[in-house]
């Protein structure tokens, strides 16, 4: 790793997202990717989401951008081993293209994803309004919250995180919030410039959201990331992109959790630009287990 990459989390993430074609038959539809190190040794779910989306996008013309994905996390991935991405071309119509992508380690799928792409078209327009929120420069950064904490995971996060997270209400990194609610507002922005490639920005939006998607479930039940005995994992992920957006500009994730039951919780988010445009909607179900 070069000196520049070692000190630039976003440059390091962008380098990791540069997939390599696999040699041999079907090389146009098979790619290999690496992983960023993680304290627990498992592949970060948002990373494999982003990589699978980029792999599928490589098989579609640049005039068609992803408008939706539906993915299942099947097995934990090993961050020390390469990941293979196999893309299946399901359909190429006049306006839409559909792809199925499998992320594989040891010839076993760790994620499977269906993605739909569409050419830009005119049509009916409406959108939910952005909720009231203070501007990001008035909100405390997660780096400031975690910076004073002398713990390896906290220090790893503030040094390696490629995105700046700013919770409008108090974060739940180091303890539960004072108020129990299923609502959460978080400003998120890349900690460095991102090339002008809308497919890449959409992939990075998928990467970023997986860091916070299940927090509204914890917040509703007065829990935090350090709750004793907490076990959490993403089970599935759905995402719809409505309008172009850049992840190196501030995005507001307006989150809620409509239900939790049976060791699972459902979380949703609407994503807005700072000027109030709704650019994406997200839903994710996760395993959330705590000692009873």
UniProtKB/TrEMBL annotation:
A molecular function GO annotation: fatty acyl-CoA hydrolase activity
Pfam families, per the entry: 4HBT_3, Acyl_CoA_thio
Domain Acyl-CoA thioesterase-like N-terminal HotDog span(s) in chain numbering: 40-118
GO biological process: acyl-CoA metabolic process; fatty acid catabolic process
Domain (Acyl-CoA thioesterase 2 C-terminal): residue spans on this chain: 183-287
Highest taxon listed in the record's lineage: Bacteria
The entry's keywords: Hydrolase, Lipid metabolism
Enzymatic reactions: a fatty acyl-CoA + H2O = a fatty acid + CoA + H(+)
Keyword Lipid metabolism assigned: yes
Subunit structure: Homotetramer.
Similarity comment: family membership: Belongs to the C/M/P thioester hydrolase family.
Protein name: Acyl-CoA thioesterase 2
Organism: Cellulomonas fimi
